[in-house]
Design a protein that fits this description.
This protein is α/β, with parallel strands linked by helices. The protein is built from 7 helices and 7 strands; from the N terminus they run βαβαβαβαβαβααβ. The chain is globular and about 45 Å long. The structure holds nicotinamide-adenine-dinucleotide. This is SDR family NAD(P)-dependent oxidoreductase.
């Protein structure tokens, strides 16, 4: 287990970060890193109980303000309400991390439209909804902002069983690049993080079962940890990445199937 916050000089004091899917897994670690670096945090998650728990822990552990905001990122109306709640609570929005995502491994021929809608709804519409709702706030603030969208190694189309999930993640990559170009004049940067296999509640059982086989595809001989991504997100949202936009950063231990 390695420690988070290796980029210890970053200071987000006085800033606000929204982390979707912030109640669990990678998102929870991202919330922790933002709070440890001084940001107030909105834990935006469909699971209200865990979001409340996370927000309380962030306040207790780091002395920042943290609010749980129950939201379904696949719903534009819900997301608009979530963003208004955050704006009312903190008065500004500096970072948006579109981390919420779901997946299910199944051959494409065995999938049905309701599953496509579910996966694309959270993984791609979630990113569009939150980005669209937050951008006017960042632009009006006049001093920029940072958005980090979430892809996955699967966006390259090399993971049988993850056709729809991979396609939704590829759409996030495309959206990232285009929107980055459109909002750069406002000082808003939009980047994408592409995680490799990482142990979280969503993947732990599968990783425990297939760890040796999974590691054959990685140059570095370990499974990813949420802190690997939290550090990368902190970098992308900080001034250290002031001239980085429209990029896809793979944090994947050198995954070699792409
Ligand atoms: P996780 O399941 O542990 O956490 C996901 C969080 O998103 C949960 O708190 C869940 O309640 C929330 N969520 C789900 N649907 C939502 C919705 N409609 N609205 C709001 N919140 C919702 O997942 P994780 O493994 O931490 O993955 C985080 C991100 O990283 C996802 O985008 C995932 O696709 C991506 N990713 C993960 C891995 C991995 O190996 N874990 C690999 C590549 C990419």
């Amino acid at each position: 287990m390695r420690a988070s916050n290796v980029i210890g000089e970053i200071d987000f004091s006085g800033q606000t970060a929204i982390v979707t899917g912030g109640a669990s897994g990678i998102g929870r670690e991202i919330c922790d890193t933002f709070a440890a670096l001084g940001a107030n945090v909105a834990v935006a998650d469909i699971e209200q109980g865990p979001a409340e728990e996370a927000a309380s822990e962030l306040e207790a552990d780091h002395g920042v303000e943290a609010i749980p905001v129950e939201t379904d990122v696949s719903s534009y109306d819900a997301v608009t309400e979530m963003v208004e709640t955050v704006d009312e609570a903190f008065g500004r929005i500096d970072s948006l991390v579109n981390n919420a995502g779901i997946g299910e491994s199944k051959p494409f021929t065995e999938t049905e439209p309701d599953l496509w809608e579910k996966i694309v709804g959270v993984c791609f519409y979630g990113t569009m909804n939150c980005t669209h709702a937050v951008l006017p706030h960042m632009i009006d603030q006049g001093d920029g902002g940072a958005i980090v969208n979430f892809a996955s190694d699967s966006y390259k189309g090399n993971d049988p069983g993850l056709a729809v999930y991979g396609a939704a993640k590829a759409a996030n990559v495309s959206l990232t690049r285009t929107v980055a170009h459109e909002v750069g004049d406002h000082g808003v940067r939009v980047n994408c993080l592409s995680p490799g296999t990482t142990k979280t509640p969503a993947t732990a059982d599968w990783i425990d079962e297939y760890e040796d086989r999974i590691l054959e595809s990685y140059a570095l001989d370990r499974i990813g940890e949420p802190a690997d991504h939290a550090d990368a997100v902190a970098f992308l949202c900080s001034d250290a990445a002031d001239w980085v936009t429209g990029e896809v950063l793979s944090v994947n231990g050198g995954y070699i199937r792409g």
